[in-house]
Amino acid sequence: MASTSDIKNGLCIKYNNDIYKIIEFLHVKPGKGPAFVRTKLKSLTNGKVLDNTFSAGHKIDEVRVENHKFQFLYPEGNEFHFMNTETFEQISLNKSILDSPDLLKEGENVMVSINTETDLPLSVDMPASVVLEVTYAEPGIKGNTATNATKSATVETGATVNVPLFINEGDKIKIDTASGSYMERVKE
């Protein structure tokens, strides 16, 4: 058993007969009344995010997880196939377990959290950013914008990302996996 003082980002807990991962937390000590911890929890079974407040000192049920490095092999319908880079064991996970499956390129390395009690995969942590090639982009016309104009572009995984007007087909761009937004153009 852990308490609210042990709460940190990425901690997996049992709550309401489900397993949740803490995405965000904020320890609040108001001027009047007891302290509390405001959290944002993501369900590892259905992907729903909920806000919850724990009073200070509240006991929480921690779930022991191990993180293993897996390589993404290929998608098949709603199933995504991964291979453990150390044991070469293959697993298939449902698309709903991934945060941004449309940004996952074949051969990409991810961290998979596995429950040590049941040996079941709980979540997939994508890298902070991915570099993908633009396969389709409307041509940007110079001079018809005021500031910060964007256009939509399709990348090699099929995802659509808003990019600045100077991005063309064939360019490689870095994308933030948390928000799915354009970060920068990558020169080789």
UniProtKB/TrEMBL annotation:
Q: Does the keyword Protein biosynthesis apply?
A: yes
Q: Where in the cell is it found?
A: Cytoplasm
Give the Translation elongation factor P/YeiP central domain ranges: 67-122
What residues form the membrane-spanning segments? none
Task: Please identify the protein, giving its name as recorded.
Answer: Elongation factor P
The segment(s) forming the Elongation factor P C-terminal domain are 130-185
Q: Which family does it belong to?
A: Belongs to the elongation factor P family.
Instruction: Supply the source organism for this entry.
Output: Flavobacterium granuli
Listed GO MF terms: translation elongation factor activity
Q: Which GO terms describe its biological process?
A: peptide biosynthetic process
